[in-house]
């Protein structure tokens, strides 16, 4: 049955309940930064949030923000980085088909954006974590979070760590993760700036005037509809479509039933409402994927597909490994590791120790393991023999794994069954300008409508680096706030 509430509503049919200069829908990282900048620009701002409090998926995340170009944190820890190197990496790793204008703007202003976050109250510890991992185990403030220091990127672009992690907080109730410590100061600032927040309000429809300009929204709270007029502009920041199975089936069926790093309010509604006005979308099939295995184990072993062949350098960004596994190997993956490497991995610190379950198979030889897994006869044996021969020489001619992780596989061996242990979230969405204007299919901005965060197609077009969503959302959220406040 068609959802007619997604269709735009004419202003002539509306009795306004509230009005403001700028209306922001969604109070995660994109919505909060949009509200802050709009208020700082002198606008009267109303922020609507579907849930009972602000923060969204950002507050529940690990908290990485992808920043570089020579932030004060990078410099303090002895890392040289430039905007040009950052651009080169992002355009290579986050494609194909990235929006180069967005990446250029993001990288050129990355240092300023870091300083803006610090000025807003976000704290970053002056510490570095250089081991494989989804997140630093002790809350270190800086980490390689996109495979910058692994093949193929480290051979063509000078690597620099760009995963900036807000400091964790400890209180009587336990430890607060980085995402919470990113959102808390931002939401506090939203309140100090006098932004009017309306929680438990879900935006239902966009309201347009006779000229097609977006002039407000209809929202629903506990069955009651409210119309909020936006004198200057509406900013959509309601998240991805990872929890809308119809949209997933249409655009990204490979992650249907596998949501991760999202929340259930990520239902794609902002995208659908905007499409009803003729908005363009981009990269709707693009997804980030997580693989539920400790990177400390993967770096020390080899990953093979259902044919017993290696397919990726195991020391790269775990999200890249997961994408390779799901998108190009059909989700079939087995981690093969010998006893000494397994024991060594167990002694290391990791934020994902819970992913160190007992291996499914443990055998005295590779040929026995191959048979136990059910791989083609001789396939795993030949893969291990080739890998081990070159590992003796500290080289990996197939995938460029770094020498520090190369060791021949010998003695008793084990394997983890990683089939099905992946999940993801969507990266595609509304096509927007560098100033966060929502673009019509004609290429022209839709008057009065702006968007940021995971409801848009941002700097990622296929590949990913941890922190790109919070970085992209906060950066272009700020631009959305500025643009909306300047609207007529």
Automatic annotation (TrEMBL):
The keyword Transferase does not apply. GO terms for molecular function: steroid dehydrogenase activity, acting on the CH-CH group of donors. This is Flavoprotein. Keywords: FAD, Flavoprotein, Oxidoreductase. InterPro entries: FAD-dep_OxRdtase_2_FAD-bd, FAD-oxidoreductase_2, FAD/NAD-bd_sf, Succ_DH/fumarate_Rdtase_cat_sf. Residues 21-467 form the FAD-dependent oxidoreductase 2 FAD-binding domain. GO terms for biological process: steroid metabolic process. PANTHER family: 3-OXOSTEROID 1-DEHYDROGENASE, FUMARATE REDUCTASE. Its cofactor is FAD.
């Amino acid at each position: 049955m068609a959802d007619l509430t997604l269709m735009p509503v004419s202003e002539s049919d509306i009795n306004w309940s509230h009005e403001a200069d700028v209306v922001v829908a969604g109070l995660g990282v994109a919505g909060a930064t949009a509200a802050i900048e709009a208020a700082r620009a002198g606008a009267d701002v109303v922020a609507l949030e579907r849930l009972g409090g602000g923060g969204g998926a950002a507050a529940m995340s690990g908290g990485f923000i992808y920043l570089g170009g020579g932030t004060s944190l990078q410099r303090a820890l002895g890392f040289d980085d430039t905007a040009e190197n950052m651009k080169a990496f992002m355009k290579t790793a986050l494609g194909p088909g990235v929006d180069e204008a967005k990446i250029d703007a993001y990288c050129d202003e990355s240092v300023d954006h870091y300083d803006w976050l610090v000025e807003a109250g976000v704290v970053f510890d002056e510490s570095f974590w250089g081991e494989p991992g989804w997140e630093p185990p002790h809350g270190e403030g800086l980490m390689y979070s996109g495979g910058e220091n692994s093949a193929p990127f480290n051979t063509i672009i000078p690597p620099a760590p760009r995963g900036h992690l807000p400091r964790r907080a400890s209180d009587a109730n336990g430890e607060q993760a980085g995402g919470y410590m990113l959102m808390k100061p931002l939401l506090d600032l939203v309140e100090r700036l006098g932004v009017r927040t309306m929680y438990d309000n879900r935006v239902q429809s966009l309201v347009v005037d006779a000229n097609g300009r977006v002039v407000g929204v209809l929202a629903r709270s506990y069955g009651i509809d409210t119309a909020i007029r936006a004198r200057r502009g509406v900013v959509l920041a309601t998240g991805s479509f990872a929890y809308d199975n119809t949209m997933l089936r249409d655009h990204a069926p490979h992650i249907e039933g596998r949501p991760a790093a999202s929340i259930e309010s990520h239902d794609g509604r902002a995208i659908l409402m905007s499409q009803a006005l003729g908005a363009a979308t981009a990269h709707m099939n693009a997804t980030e994927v997580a693989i539920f295995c400790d990177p400390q184990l993967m770096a020390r072993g080899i990953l093979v597909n259902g044919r017993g062949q290696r397919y990726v350098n195991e020391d790269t960004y775990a999200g890249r490994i997961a994408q390779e596994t799901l998108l190009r190997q059909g989700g079939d993956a087995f981690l093969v590791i010998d006893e000494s490497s397994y024991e060594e991995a167990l002694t290391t610190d990791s934020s994902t120790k819970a992913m160190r379950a007992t291996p499914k198979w443990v055998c005295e030889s590779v040929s026995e393991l191959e048979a136990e897994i059910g791989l083609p006869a001789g396939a795993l044996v030949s893969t291990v023999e080739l890998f081990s021969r070159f590992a003796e020489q500290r080289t990996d001619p197939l995938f460029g794994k770094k020498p520090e992780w190369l060791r021949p596989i010998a003695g008793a061996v084990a394997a983890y069954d990683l089939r099905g242990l992946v999940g993801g979230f969507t990266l595609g969405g509304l096509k927007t300008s560098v100033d966060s204007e929502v673009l019509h299919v004609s290429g022209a901005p839709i008057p009065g409508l702006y968007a940021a965060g995971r409801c848009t197609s941002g700097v990622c077009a296929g590949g990913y680096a941890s922190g790109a969503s919070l970085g992209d959302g906060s950066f272009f959220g700020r631009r959305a706030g500025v643009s909306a406040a300047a609207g007529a």
